[in-house]
Design goal:
By secondary structure, the chain is an alpha/beta fold. 34% of the residues lie in helices and 22% in strands. The protein folds into two domains: 97 residues, Roll (Urease, subunit C, domain 1), CATH 2.30.40; 292 residues, Metal-dependent hydrolases (TIM Barrel, Alpha-Beta Barrel), CATH 3.20.20.
Amino acid sequence: MAARVVLTNATVIDCVQPAPLEHATVVVENGRIAEILAGLRLPPAGDETVIDLRGAYLLPGLWDVHIHPDYYPYGELPLADQVTLFGHRLMSGLTEAGIVGVRCAGAHHFMDVAWKRAFDSGQFTGPRVYASGYFLTTTAGHFLHSGHALECDGPYGFVKAIREQIKNGVDHIKLNLSGGIMGPDWDRHWHSFLLEEELRAAFAICKQRDFKVMAHATNPESVKHAVRLGAHSIEHGYLMDDECIELLVKHNAWYVPTLCISHLTPTQASNDWERRWVAQRNLSHALCCRAEAASEVHAAWFRRALDAGVRMALGSDARPLREATLLEMGLWTKDGATPWQTLVAATRNAAAICGAGDDLGTVEVGKLADIIVVSANPLEDIDNVRKLLLVLKEGRIVSDKRRPAS
């Protein structure tokens, strides 16, 4: 493909302004957006690839800012196979769903770091990966059976583990401050796990080394501790209170609600995509009951945060990536977000939470051309993001689902 790509007759949703720009032309040169022309204008002809989009919708590629690799009981699948499967999931997320960026929330043996380096070097084509390595919790902490957890105890235990994460090339530190919906009986989302001295030591070393904290916080106590100590983002927030919302706004912290965790059970699934995913997941009855018990209050605090203007980004915390991200987007709109708010959360805000907002997340002149094209308007129905035609990474087509001309 030529270094210059001209995408004509596009309906551009730039994720900056809510109104689409019709009959537009987007010019990409050397991987970046060079021009956006309105009214069927075309740049001077040259050595270029011209693609007529015939009115299709061009928008920034999607992001998922809370992901994990698949998890298996110890010894069930060799490590090499798990690493390979994770890479395949990431690559298919890009090509099958237009997910151009991901932020990891826990991956054992630093497999997220390995795939980040492989994609960045050009060895493989995949999304941009922001790596966490293991997530850090206490003995008897959250989600230990996933294999992605590293158990730490005492202030120095957390400090040493964080230094090990930094040494192995992570982008941020994931701290699990509390329990969750998915876990054994002693792993409950209304319980906090870290002692105050452990919290202070963990946040202090992250601040000293200039590493952002991605804080799994699922109850008011853990949310407030995390925000006050400087967490970059709060993950889940199943249970909150008014003071949590006030602190999130005051400290300008991010919130990633991960609705998939509490909302996707057989009795809650409301469309064919959800029902198919729920059937494949085959969650135990006990865990379904835990999710359903938390669902309504989780949705209520999601809406409160949205209405209060809390900075929010979209993350699914479910697998596989190519399905989970799109399911999470549908859940946002079912819980009261507009399609526009959902798109912004999955593009502009998601890039910003990863520190990549200057280069990615919107369709603007000067930004990297990580863009997707869909055949129907996602501002009318968010599920139209499923009608994927093209995925471009830095202006290069990596997935083309258009039907050949007859």
